[in-house]
Design goal:
single chain, mainly beta, Immunoglobulin-like, about 0% helix
């Protein structure tokens, strides 16, 4: 049984049901040292922890840190970690791996995307476009068959009076950690009300559509990508 918990990072705990309870082994402790220039509160991760049913720890992003101290079950954990503007980090923390490591930020080029949403979607409201990176390959990395895919909030933009917005996105088409898998990565777009955070519309792009009405990760896009309200 897989339980999903959201805090800003996503923690997926796999619990074994229907088996006799055995004493838990002591948790493992790992330290991830952040690169200079990376704000600790902006680090995001999607994690799958091991199969210890008694493990209920949470990993919460916090400001003004130089490192994160993780606690995992005795079996370890797998993480997909995103630091703004950097290549994706794939971390397989095992009992026999180093308990401290310094993360590297390998900067990616930026891709400019200009889009337009129908003006009636945000009429009379203060709205913003939220762009999320959809790691559609995350199931393959974690070795699971179903469940939520790993997603990361990457950018926001305010559309003008004509519904036009521009965002600069990291070029994950050049990231070897994201291109080695069968499924391509994608961008998803949502129109949100700024004050409440309520979703006004899930946006469907007019071009380069992948499964789920998302925009495929590419190194360039047309001069204007139009969006409509999706399902």
């Amino acid at each position: 049984m897989v339980k999903a918990c959201f805090v800003s990072l996503v923690l997926v705990v796999s619990a074994l049901a229907g088996q006799s309870k055995t004493p838990s082994r002591p948790p493992l402790k790992f330290t991830l040292v952040l690169p200079k220039g990376v704000a600790s509160e902006q680090v995001q991760a999607f994690e799958i922890y091991g199969s210890d049913p008694d493990f209920h720890d949470f990993f919460r992003p916090q400001p003004a840190l130089t490192q994160y101290d993780l606690k995992t079950p005795s079996t370890g954990a797998k993480l997909i970690l995103y630091m703004p503007g950097c290549e994706i980090q794939l971390l397989d923390l095992k009992p026999n791996t180093p308990k401290s490591r310094t993360l590297e930020c390998r900067r990616l080029p930026l891709v400019s995307l200009t889009g337009q949403v129908p003006r009636d979607l945000s009429a009379g409201k203060s709205a913003e476009i939220e762009v999320r990176y959809e790691a559609t390959w995350s199931h393959e990395y974690f070795g699971i068959q179903d469940g939520m895919i790993a997603t990361f909030r990457v950018a926001t933009a305010i559309p003008d009076e004509n519904g036009v917005f521009t965002v600069a996105l990291p070029d994950f088409s050049l990231d070897p950690h994201t291109t080695q898998w069968k499924l391509p990565s994608a961008w998803s777009f949502m129109l949100r009300e700024v004050r409440s955070g309520n979703i006004l519309a899930r946006l469907k792009p007019s071009v380069a559509v992948t499964a789920g009405d998302d925009l495929e990760v590419r190194s360039s896009y047309p001069d204007m990508v139009t969006f409509s309200a999706g399902n």
